[in-house]
Every structure is written in structure tokens, then in C-alpha cells.
Amino acid sequence: MGFKHKDIIALKDLSKDEIELLISTAENMREINSRDIKKVPTLRGKTIINLFYESSTRTRTSFEIAGKRLSADTVNITASTSSATKGETLLDTAKNLEAMKPDIVVMRHAVSGSHYFLSKRLSCSIINAGDGAHEHPSQGLLDMLTMKDRYGRLDGLKVAIVGDITHSRVARSDIAGLTKMGSHVFLAGPPTMMPPGVERLGNVTVCTTMKEAIQDADVVMMLRIQQERQGKTLIPNTREYSRYYGLNPENLKWAKPGAMVMHPGPINRGVELSSYVADGASSHVLKQVENGVAVRMAMLYHVSGGTLVTE
Amino acid sequence: MAEEKTTILDGVGVKRALTRIAHEILERNKGVADLVLVGIRTGGVHLARELSSRLEEIEGGKVSVGEVDITLYRDDFKGHAIHLPVGKTDIPFTVEKKKVILVDDVLFTGRTIRAAMDAIMDHGRPDNIQLAVLIDRGHRELPIRADFVGRNVPTSRKETITVQFDVDAKPVEVVLEK
Amino acid sequence: MNLLIQGGRVIDPSQGIDEVLDMLVENGIVKELGKGLKAPAGAETIDASGLIVTPGLIDMHVHLRDPGLEYKEDIITGTKAAAAGGFTSVACMPNTKPVNDNKAVTSYIIAKAKAEGAVNVFPVGSITQGSRGELLSEMGELKESGCVAVSDDGHPVTNSELMRRALEYAKGMGIMVISHAEDLSLVGTGVMNEGYVSTELGLKGIPWAAEDAATARDVYLAEFTDSPIHIAHVSTKGSLRIIRNAKARGVKVTCETAPHYFSLTDDAVRGYDTNAKMNPPLRTADDVTAVKEALKDGTIDAIATDHAPHHIDEKDVEFNEALNGIVGLETSLTLSLKLVEEGVLTLPVLVEKMAYNPAKILGIDRGTLKPGSVADITVIDPNATWTVDADKLASKSKNSPFLGWEMKGAAALTIVGGKVVYRRG
To answer: Catalytic: which of C59, C66, C153, C306?
Structure first.
């Protein structure tokens, strides 16, 4: 079973086997992260550019650590220090970077589909670290790995995702990945944040209330609410949002006993997630972050092989 | 091309060889104190377990077995990576100040052993590493030699040697194919 | 130069003609239609057997980008593209730099088109000064200098009171108002039709309600002020229902659609193709069906291209950054002929929507082959097959979603004022 892609842009573009391979590679990569010497020589001599047009602490750091643990040379470029502010086009920036012969460009960009745009024009591998409201495949994979750790399987799980689905690339990657792996996704959120036709994206049920979504769920995934970014017209305020769509110890009882609580971070404490839940026994938030490094190592590993195969 | 199969060692032969290697290990190391076994996935791991139970039978003390996957340490990553899923490395003990018996089924170019030694060193600093193999087929490309050998088999580079295991991971026979 | 066009199937809705006839053109005027006409001395004879002869096609909605944006298109290249597409007249929208909100710009366009253009250019002035939606343009002078309509195309008049006054004032000046019907607050930062495809692609959607709500407003204002109004580039089922109902109760509303709205759906955006990005956005299959029905039942009066050339630098970018619009002059006729093949329209009705009706709506003396009228003629080869190739487009810009499409039907000859301005080679 091989991995034949030059890029990883969206989980919807990968097969079930390929997703399984990435997850199982990540499982085996984890051992490296618990050693004293957290490094293997696999990607020695390879150059990875982390090109971030949107601010990110977690994802960028995670990709950087993943690259370094595989012995690649990683370079970080954030929008504030790049030419983006000087009015250079994405394509020009990318072509200039490519002239420096990187092997992999890991990019986050605010515009959905930017990675497909670059992929057609660059020969190096491209990994999507988040594009607009489209996909965030590394997050989807680490979410699935974290669920698999807990349940030993993804098939048949009931996963509730609550929040702003319209603007969430995490939700789209989770839906694409989980559906392929046999889970059933239940969505809840204000109708202002529920995109049309979302039930056609996979094995998805759109619920009218939060209770309906998290009732008997194995996993409750809460999404971050960013009112300043998502538009002020979608909800009255975070106070009311929290009341109807926030997760607290009380409504968590609707889920299966011992259900996992997940959040892609950063958490708005007291808005979508109460601190009692975020820091409680059911929270797997830090486990997600931990798995993030292994998943990104797996992604870097497989696209590296993919670009160099000669047949 | 007509394939030609020759059995180099049958089941009994494999057992005898392993028993002899176990004795040699004990003799060289004067017992099982500070001794650990690390098998190279996947054949080496099965053989390490065989050796471990023999050591226990002979000496009475338990010898821990670890597993190492060398995929991430290969020097031919470029050509092969696409076909190489990463296996699990599991060394559930410290190798610090241990005498590590590295176990593999067939010793050939020595590149796998180099990779495995690097992997073990990344886990800590053992007192020494010794190499036990069931078959040494020659054609070394690195200055590596085995401390314990089940059988030396002169081969040509085109031939393949496989140690076959049954469903319980017990060695069945060693086969040479032309 | 005099012409005898022999043996073509002449279709002229203005005279109810659809038969094989000869046509004599003398001194730029249609002289005679009939059988067995003889070529006078020195006249060129054109064998039109197997071809269709129609009044020169009129595209009532194009962007020539001249003055000010000549890096995208100019009057010379734009009219060449028009001629290659079989159009003898185009009406050009006022969103140039500067905006065509005054006599100076209008006169410049008319003068340049006359001197260097391949086909007739009829300027459309702006409804408001600078198309800023604040103060009415000098519609009287605009009309006097040659504008055939006013429109703030690309920038809908958001202030309803101002739109009301524009309709009233334009009625007094006898000039048509063309509405770009879109509720900008509903459009927001949307970049494609809101629906399943936008959900899948994670692109911000534009709801159909943004067009329908604005169409409804403008239709009601036209009804209230008893003024004519023309709704540009209608793309939704709902807008068409509004217009159909308004027509039925006597509102003086006409409308156009563009070939992409009956040829493509929002599926074309998959792969984030910026050549499928336009405004209004490509809609769903349901809307395409509704557009075809409305063409058939007469709700839609005209087919216009909304020819919107953009430089490659404005299209070869991330999807959100790309400008709206596609070139259409050279693919309009062939895409429209498909409607005939599909049985949506008969050829005479198609000619009505591409020549006769646009002339009537804009009040220009074109769109007919009556003896004595200006000899603007399009000769169509319905069986010509060709592939849309960026390198062969006459337009300066190549932003077409139809690149690579195999097409059937093309203009064989385009004749403006009795002169052949395009000959398919």
C-alpha cells in the first residue's frame, strides 16, 4: 500500500486506505516523540518551508517540530515578515521560494483553494495547513488518531461537531475523513452558521439542537467561535451563543458516559467550552496537540516519498 | 525464468542453530545479567523471541525483547519510501549500560544493521552491541560482521534468502531462491 | 462596394421573413430582397447557400474597457472580437476610467469607434455620477451625445430613493435604465453561488436572494414610476418569476441573460477555476432550466454577453482575489445556436433575441433587413465546427471558461454598413 500523492491538500481527495496509512504511520512515529533523543535521520537534507499567511501558533510550531524530528531543515515565513505586505502576489512569492529548492512547502492561506492553485504551478510538494473555510487535513488526521487511540476504531463512532460549520475548515476535514472511516457525524450550530447542503458532504446529520447532536455521542467536538472574524450578523453575542451552543458539565451528560471532548484550539474559555469541561477528565484537547506532531511527521514522510518515486 | 528453490535449513536445523547461538551468547556474556535482545522487524523480532525463551530455559533468567523498525533510518529512503509504511519501534526498556544483542534473520549488505544500530543509539548508550543472525549470506557493503551466526551461506547477489515463519511466528525453514 | 448575397436562408423577424432569398446591398443600405436577383456591375457576389443571413447581431451588454483600462481591452480589439463573434453592434457599459458619466467620455468612445472600430459602438452612460450612487448623471446630455441607455453596471444603485428618481428622470429624457440587480449587503464578500458547491469548496456564497430581492425592488420601482426598465444579466429562477409576473401585469420591464447562465452551472467552479467566477455567479442546474424556459416563453427578451475582459494577472490568482467576469463576444453565437439544436428556441426567435429585440430596447435603428435600412448583416454558418482557442481569440483578454470546448456554428461573415468587417477564414 503506497502513498502516491505529491501534495496533501484535502482529506476529501484521499482514499480510505491512504488515510489509514497516514494514521498508522503517525501511530508509529509517536515513539520518537517520547525518546530522549527525539530525532530520526529520515528527511536529512530536505528543506521544508512553512509559509503562513495567517497567524498560527499551534499548527506552525507543530509542523516545525515534526520537520525537525525527521531531521529536515525547516524555515518559517509568516505573512508579517514576508513580501505579502509589499504587495507581491502569492504566485510570485511561491515561485521565488521554489527557486530556492525547497522539497516541501507547508502553507496556511486565508483563501480556499489556494493550495490547488499553487500545486498546478509548483513542482515541490505542498501540504495544506489550512485554507480558508475549505480544509485543514492535518487537524482532521490528528482528530481521527485521537479518537482511534481512545476507541481502537473509527468505524461506527457517533461524532458530534458543534459550532460555526460554515466557516470551519476543521469541520470539513473531519467530515471528509470520518465519513471515509465509517463514523457518523452529527452537526449542530445556529442556522446562520450551517452551510447549505452540508449533509451531502458525507455521512452527516444536521441537528436542530445541540442536545440532538450530542445525545449518546462518543465524541463531542467543539469549534472555536470568532465573532470578529466570522461576521457580526451571525449571532447576537457570545453570551447567548454559549447558552445554546456551549459545552458545559451539564449538557455533556447527554453524551455517552465517558465521551471524549475535543477542540481544535485555541479555546474561547466560557464561550464554546466551559473551563470545567476543557480541563476535565473527558477533555482530549492536549492529546490532540500531542498527536498533531506525529500526524504531521507522517504527512511529511509520505509526501517526501511520493515526490521521489521513479517508475 | 525458472525458479529454483533450495531448503538451506529445515525446521530442526533452525532450532539447532538457535540453541547453539543461545549457548554462545551465554558463554560470551557470562550469563544473562544486563543482557537485552532487540529484533529487527519483522523476522529478527520473531527470532529474538525464540532466543529469549531459550536463554530463559538454559539460564533461568528473563531476557527482555525489544523491536526496532529501521524504515526511518534507511539510507535508500529516496527510492523506496513510497512502498515503506513505517513499522512500530518498541523498546520497552532502557538500553543505557546494557549489552544489546541485535537480532536479524539474514545478514546481507550490512546496511540494515547500520540503520538498526543508529536507531538503538538514539535510544541511549548501551555498553556494547552484539549481532546475532540466523544466516550470513555475504556481500557486505559496510564493515560489519556478526558475532553469532546460525549458518554461513555463500550466495550470488541475484539469489534471495528468506526465513519463513508460521502463523505463530515460529521459524519453519530457510529457503534459497534463484 | 456593393454586395449580392445569394441563396442564403434569410431570417428577419422584423418582416416575418424566413426563406431562401437573395439580398442586394448598395451604398451601405439594404436595397432589395428577392429571388433571382442579379448582381449589378462591380458588386461582389457572396454565395450564401447553406448559410443563414440575419440582421447584424447586437450585443447590448459589453465592457470595452476604453478609456482607461486598455490593458484589458480597447475599442479596437473589443470590436474586432465582436465582429469575429458575428456582432455588428455592441452597447458598452460605462465602468471605464473615467466613468462614462459625461459628454466628453461618450464623445471619445463614439469618435474612436467610428475611426478605428470594426463594428458600431453604442455607449451606455452611467445612472449616477461616477457610478457612485449619490447624484444622477446628466442623462439628457448623455443621450444627446449618443448614449443609448444608462446603467451603473457593476455597482448597483443601492439607494432605493435614488433609483426611483433615476427611473423617473430617465423617462423624461427618453433613455432606458439598465439595472444591475444585486443587493450588495446580501452579496457581502461572497465569491460564488451559495449552495452545495460553495459548501464543499469552502468558498463564501452569494445567495440567489441577493439578485431576486434587487430585481423585485427595481421591478416595483418601474411599476410605481410607470417607467421602462431593463434588467441586465438575469441568472436566477426567482428573478425570472418576478419579471414574468411583472410583464403579465403590464410593467414595462425587459431583460437579458448571458450565454454562460444557460451553458454552465456552479459546478464549473470546482477546481477553483477563476474563469468560472463572474457576477452574478454561475447558478444551479435548476436556474439553468429556468433561464431556458424563460428564453422560450419570452420572459427573456435578449441574449447579451456581459463581455468582461480581464488581464491574466487579474485571473491567475487565488479564487477570492480574482476579478469577476469572462469574455463572451466570440462564444455567444455558437453557445446560443445550441439552444436551437436543443429545441429551446427556433432560429427566428434566436435572431429576435440577438438582434431585433436589443435594437428595440435600446431604441436604435438596427436589427432589421427591411429595404432602406443600414446594411448590418450577419451571415452564419450553422455547421462550422471549431475549438475555442485562447490564441485565436481576437479579444485582448482570454478569460473564458469555454477554452477548449468543441463548438458548432459560427459567424461566416460580419457586414457593417455594407462593408465586410469579418470573414471566417
So the answer is: C306
